[in-house]
Amino acid sequence: MEFFLCVVGMVMIFEGVPYFAFPAKMKLWILKVIEMPDENLRRLGFVLMIFGLGLVYLGKR
Prior knowledge:
Elements: H1 2-21, H2 23-35, H3 38-60
Helix pairs in contact: 1-2
């Protein structure tokens, strides 16, 4: 559980940095994401999940 909380904390840090450093650009990026077709977002999400799974696999190896 301790490791899980550390991982969640690190994810929150990495996710928060762009919003803190570039709030105006993040607003523009979010507007572009809203305009993207659902299929493109699904593909992006799938690729990110596979990449994350690969990183976890390499980290546990």
